[in-house]
Amino acid sequence: MAKKEEWLQLLGWNKDNLEDLRFVGYDYIKQGHYSIALNFFGALAKLPTTPEVYDIQTLGALYLELGNHRDALHFLEKALGLDPMDETTLLNRAKTLFMLGYTQQGLTQVGRLTHSDDATIRGQALALSQSYA
């Protein structure tokens, strides 16, 4: 099986091609075509030698949106391994934990986010904590 670098070379792709792929995937997200966007971000996560944390975060969010909570948790935790302080990813992880029935872990996660400097994150965290408490 070819390594990731070899696949990019076989395809004749470079970083610009990856950015194009990311742009098209994001455009599908904006249109609400999450299943199609999932294919683009899945490819982005597999192709580069070092995937962008944004691509991994987006994959997790897409799986969450599509109701595939186990895969969502997998990719959100992978993204947090690359950027452990990203509050959007932490919030999506909390939502995923709630959806999987891990209420206590979800409450712990949103409890930390209720002190966020970001008003949107803080508001969503407060709403989740009130909903699941």
Question: Notable features of this structure?
Answer:
133 residues, 77% helix, elongated, mainly alpha
Q: Radius of gyration, rounded?
A: 16 Å
The global form is: elongated
Averaged pLDDT, please? 91
Q: How much helix is in the residues?
A: over 70%
- Structural class by helix and strand composition: mainly alpha
Fraction in beta strands:
under 5%
Largest sheet: none
Q: Which spans have pLDDT < 50 for at least 5 consecutive residues?
A: none
**Total E-strand runs:** 0
Given the structure, what is the number of helices? 8
End-to-end Cα distance: 48 Å
Explain this structure.
TPR repeats lie at residues 53-86. It comes from Aerophobetes bacterium. InterPro entries: TPR-like_helical_dom_sf, TPR_rpt. This is Type III secretion chaperone. Keywords: TPR repeat. By secondary structure, the protein is an all-alpha fold. It has a domain at 1-50. Helix content is 77%, strand content 0%. It contains eight helices and no strands. It has helices at 4-11, 15-30, 34-46, 53-65, 69-82, 87-99, 103-113, 119-132. Helix 5 runs antiparallel to helix 6 (87-99). The longest helix is centred in the N-terminal third of the chain and has 16 residues, at 15-30. The protein starts with a helix and ends with a helix.
